Amino acid sequence: MADVINSLSDRLLFGIPKKGRLHEHCLSLLSGADINFHRHNRLDIALVQNLPIALVFLPAADIPKYVADGNVDLGMTGQDMILESQVGDRIEQLLELGFGKCKLEVQVPVRSNIKNVEDLVGKRIVTSFVVLAGVYFEELDKKYLSDDQKKEGKKTKIEYVSGSVEAACALGLADGIVDLVESGETMRAAGLQSIAVVCSSQAILFRNKNPSNPSLVSKLTSRIRGVVAAQKYVLLNYNIQRHSLGEATKITPGRQAPTISPLEKDGWVEVQSMVCKNNVAEIMDQLEEIGAKDILIFNINNCRV
Predict the structure, then answer these.
(1) Residue 88 and residue 79: Cα distance in Å, rounded?
(2) What is the dihedral of CA 42, 43, 44, 49, to 10 degrees?
(3) In terms of DSSP bridges, do strands 74-78 and 124-127 run parallel, antiparallel, or are they unpaired?
(4) How many other CB atoms sit within 10 Å of the CB of residue 123?
(5) Considering only 31-45, 96-110, 243-257, 287-301, which range has the smallest mean pLDDT?
(6) How far apart are alpha carbons 137 and 275 in whole angstroms?
(7) What pLDDT digit, counting tens, does each position of 77-118 carry?
(8) Percent of the chain with pLDDT over 90
(9) Would you say the C-alpha torsion 267, 236, 222, 101 has a positive or negative sign?
(10) Which NCBIfam families match (predicted)?
């Protein structure tokens, strides 16, 4: 793989999660940004056909280090991975991507006597995030361990496991775990409950502070920002009597201002406006109440805002 990378000196290298919870979302984002490529089976490098870019498919946890060290120019992964890698001062965050949202939480068995994080101080923790868990419990140790316990060298024990963290308590390996929670279904199925949040996370686009092609990084960022914005909005189109226009535009002010066009029917206008997707049903109800007609919704695939 090293020889292949060395042959791509004329291309911007873009690190993409090769599998896992972020992989498909990242591919969808690239497609929306018109980044066209074909990835051959079992190959972790794909050449983009319409831009001088090479996609490098890497474990999500490794991407922050590759970007920070300058092995690749930019990447997409979770904020939790960047915090765990301790490279935040060596990369530049460009854009929150709006997916992969989760929380790194401290969890214990529902049936245990442990009800808060203070009860875990000095006990055993199993996690894939030993850096973040270590920093978190180091502060708790300072606060809750007695002077005698500190002199004896007692502290919360953090142990690493790479997967199936939620099984650690049931197997007697730990008193609690630190793990990512999205919906919470896996946690509840394992008989666990959350007692504290270490940090929140979502997928981000980030770059090395000295990328090989800054102008291309800017172009990519603009395209991806447009896709992310388009996922949040829809285009609302409706007709309204002119005397109700002021009230209507308060309901649909748009990002800058709505587009208003006169209709052939006297006293009527057509209005187009970008509105938040998660509030569109309520907006349509309000427009209907003030007499709007022919209310239509159009999906937006990409935009510049």
Answers:
(1) 9
(2) -130
(3) unpaired
(4) 14
(5) 31-45
(6) 43
(7) 999 999 999 999 999 999 999 999 999 999 999 999 999 999
(8) 81
(9) positive
(10) hisG, HisG_C-term
Encoded tokens for 182:
């999205």
134: tokens are 């270590």
Q: How far is CA 71 from CA 27, 45, 49, 121, 141, in A?
A: 21, 13, 21, 39, 37
> Residues 135-175: pLDDT tens digits?
999 999 999 988 888 888 899 999 999 888 999 998 889 99
Q: Could you please report the per-residue DSSP string of 210-253?
A: S-S-HHHHHHHHHHHHHHHHHHHEEEEEEEEEGGGHHHHHHH--
Residue 193: CB atoms within 10 A of its CB come to 18
CB within 8 A of 228, min separation 6: which ones? Answer: 29, 95, 96, 97, 98
- Give the list of residues 6+ apart from residue 278 with CB closer than 8 angstroms, or none: 232
Smallest CA-to-CA distance from 202 within 98, 285, 131, 278 is with: 98
Report the mean per-residue pLDDT for the chain: 93
